[in-house]
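ugh finaly. both done.
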Amino acid sequence: MITNTLYVLLAILMLGIIVTVHEFGHYVVGRACGIGIKEFSVGFGPRIFGWERKGIKYSLRCIPLGGYCAFVGEDERNDDPRAMSNQPVWKRFLTVLAGPFMNFVLAFIVCVSMLAGYYQTTDEILPVVGQLIEGMPAQEAGLQPGDRILAVNGSEIPDGTAGAEHASALIQSGEGSAPVSLRVQRGEETLDFDIAPRVVDDGRGGSVRQIGIYYSYRERRLTFGEALREAPGYTAEVMGMMLDSLRRLIFKGEGLEDTAGTVGIIAVVSQQARQGFQNVLWLMFIISLNLGIMNLLPLPALDGGRLLFLIIETIRRKPIPPEKEGLVHGIGMVLLLGLFVVLTYHDIVKLISGGFNM
């Protein structure tokens, strides 16, 4: 029971970090742009403790599922020159965009950590028998997985990819089914084999001599530099899959039954935490990316909705009254809260029915 509670607390902490990083993006860019900030809070609900510095309240609140950054004059008219509604469009645009952007930054950092800490690459081929093809000459001759090829036709085979390539070239260099001589090391023994390759179609209109083996690979972890180079492509690939899933959800309703709210996310994260920290990092990567993408949707109360209003303001060359924009976002927030309630109910029913194994 205590262990389950710790996993749930870990899941709540992870969600809190992701949302707080989002709000921290708004905070940092807003301050850099000179926009007044009333409060930066980690968590929601009743205040546990806090302090005030340079007119900004900093709070830690009791529900650690996120946080918020409250700007001066965000959805109201305010004569304060630092008010958000009195700032140029470009400052407001950057401040709003900074939240989702920080989610992408966090996802990228987590991705690099995953690749450098856990990902195994198999980019080095070894002159070692990994698998034997059923019914091919190597199996019939008695080769076994793990045999290290020392020489082919008397030519010494070095270690690494160069050795595997050299061994393949020597095997293929003969005529027809002319036998090749292999010397292999098996444990403490050195064994010799004469194997007649089989001529097979190479798939390109030609033929090739094969004895029927797959080489082994040497697995290693990526260096930090390699992880840093691989992370952008990997992140972009996952984002592409997410956008495709979102498109199918919106236009076809596919995946609707798998949609989860906060309770479901906590349940899934706590489950995966039991399987190891790698799974926690993976979910943190996915959820942070997802939060960044969802917040850019042009819907009221989301950052994407605020960005849409700023784009309209730029096109009209005339600001939209803050009260009207605030009303639209207020209605959007009510709808989002309604969606939150529905998803929470769905999660609880699924949890009670055993859909989530807590």
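ok and the 2nd:
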Amino acid sequence: MARLMSFSLSACLLLLGLLPSLLRANDAPEFSEFLGHWEVDFAASEAPNDKLRYLYDVTLSDHQRRLASGQNRIGETPFQAIDDLRGLVNLGRLGEQITRTAVLNVRMQGNTLYVDRDDNFSLRCEVGGLAEEAENLGYSRCRMSDRALVFWLGLPGGFGIEHRLILSERGDRLSIATTVAADGVSQAFSVSRVYQPFEPVTEGIQCQYTLGKGKVCTLNGGFND
């Protein structure tokens, strides 16, 4: 009995000794791990138009199935189904606009983390302070969730936009899953973009991104149409 108790005590002490390392292994990344310059990986990213087409077909089929079988929701009519599909298309167009970012610059200024996005508004998060703040058109909040840094923006009219930044365990990929939802639209629109780290180009070289060619760089910014 004494040997059994001694073994159990030793096992407990061993587990307690391993516990800190196990916790560290499962810890979420620090804010500082997101810092740096990131460029989109087109091959690994979803195309908004393709995603919208898929969600449209799924939503249309769902409406058709329920209306044909008489299992439609209370008050649901074919006209409301059409409005729902139109709402989904509008969400998809908005999602395409706010996910077109090709280059990110994640930086810290004081206690504020900024995600600067080309052709888009910057995301910001107060580190160690208030996670929710008023915006010009609504309010925003941010939080760490597992390995993700989550930004949420609430807009008038029941619109909500979520950006979920997920850092790979090796720190060599940063995916941004963006979801746009609205009251009265049954299906949210979601699209994921994947980014990889890069070093900013030297002075005298400018780069631009096109859907057809991806990243194109020239000396002295001399792009030709």
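summary for the 2nd one i guess: DSSP finds three helices and twelve strands in the chain.
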